[in-house]
Design a protein that fits this description.
Order of helices and strands: EHEHEHEHHEHEEHEHEHHHHH
Number of strands: 9
CATH class of the largest domain: Alpha Beta
Shape: globular
CATH architecture of the largest domain: 3-Layer(aba) Sandwich
Protein name: 3-hydroxyisobutyrate dehydrogenase
Helix content: 40-55%
Distance between the termini: 57 Å
CATH superfamily of the largest domain: NAD(P)-binding Rossmann-like Domain
Organism: Paraburkholderia fungorum
Keywords: NAD, Oxidoreductase
Strand order of the largest sheet: 3-2-1-4-5-6
Active site: 171
Largest sheet: 6 strands, parallel
Pfam families: NAD_binding_11 (PF14833), NAD_binding_2 (PF03446)
Radius of gyration: 20 Å
Strand content: 5-15%
Length: 289
């Protein structure tokens, strides 16, 4: 497996493609937006004109797409991956996607003797560009083992959590916790500020104590306290992930009142914080009673 195709060359896909190139692979790229793939050619990524073209020429195909609906269209649509793949191809879907959709796509690919691994990623654009991402993997032992050398050059840590779909379940739960941490930490900061405690000192103290979490360790120091809000991940995408989490909890009948309240607040924030804003802006949202 020496030729890797990447479909979707946005903030994450571009970084993954370049990491793969640095790792010694022949890398092909396709993006639906005109000119995006072509602009990477000077960095060694060979542009392909269609999904069919990149699929036929790839040994492994990486998907970096926004939603399950787009993944289904790319894989199952006219001229898509399923219609163009050669037997033995393995598709790795790094999208944060709906697990039932993932299982549907995987079943369709099995019909044409194509394997699938769901491998959603954490680490943001910086992690993709520096190959320091974490991946949670769902798939058969054989498929995961086959793509391990490729994934090793684009990520720092990989955890095989179960069969197809398990990776996407795990990533949804991860992002649910991130959403909860941001909301809870913003409340803690406002409470401390109300009695005169400096937010920066508070975050430093919390990060060394038992109250530490992703928001105190990463989000506040990196994007919030300095008021940059430039993580590369939008409110629209995070709201989508919280909706996926709410759907998962509901479908399984899980009793999770704190998670459900977090989902409600993220949805409510849409009236006050635009979709294009950085997702860390949620800390500025105070529900209007």
């Amino acid at each position: 497996m020496k030729t890797v195709g990447v479909i979707g060359l946005g903030n994450m896909g571009r970084g993954m493609a370049l990491s793969l190139k640095r790792g010694g692979y022949t890398v092909l790229g396709f993006d639906a937006a005109p000119g995006v793939a072509e602009r990477l050619q000077e960095e060694g990524v060979s542009a392909r004109a269609s999904i069919a073209d990149i699929t036929r020429d790839s040994d492994v195909l990486i998907l970096s797409l926004p939603t399950s609906a787009i993944v289904e269209e790319v894989v199952l649509g006219h001229g898509g991956v399923a219609a163009s793949a050669k037997p033995g191809l393995i598709v790795v879907d790094t999208t944060t996607a709906e697990p039932n959709s993932t299982r549907k796509v995987a079943a369709a690919l099995r019909e044409v003797k194509v394997g699938m691994v769901d491998g959603p990623v954490s680490g943001g654009p910086k992690g993709a560009a520096s190959a320091t991402m974490t991946m949670v993997l769902g798939g058969s032992d054989e498929d995961v083992a086959a793509v391990e050398p490729i994934l090793a050059v684009m990520s720092a840590k990989r955890v095989h959590v179960g069969p197809v779909g398990a990776g996407h379940v795990t990533k949804i739960i991860n992002n649910l916790l991130t959403g909860i941490h941001l909301l809870a930490t913003s409340e803690a900061v406002r409470a401390a500020e109300s009695v005169g405690v400096d937010p920066g000192k508070l975050i430093e103290a919390l990060s060394g104590g038992s109250g530490r979490n992703s928001a105190t360790l990463t989000n506040y120091p990196t994007w919030i306290l300095n008021n940059t809000f430039d993580s590369g991940f939008t409110m629209k995408l995070m709201r989508k992930d919280l909706r996926l989490a709410m759907d998962l909890l509901k479908s399984q009948g899980v009793n999770a009142p704190i998670a459900v309240e977090a989902g409600r607040l993220w949805a409510e924030s849409a009236q006050f914080i635009g979709d294009a804003e950085d997702f860390n802006r949620i800390v500025q949202f105070v529900e209007q009673k």
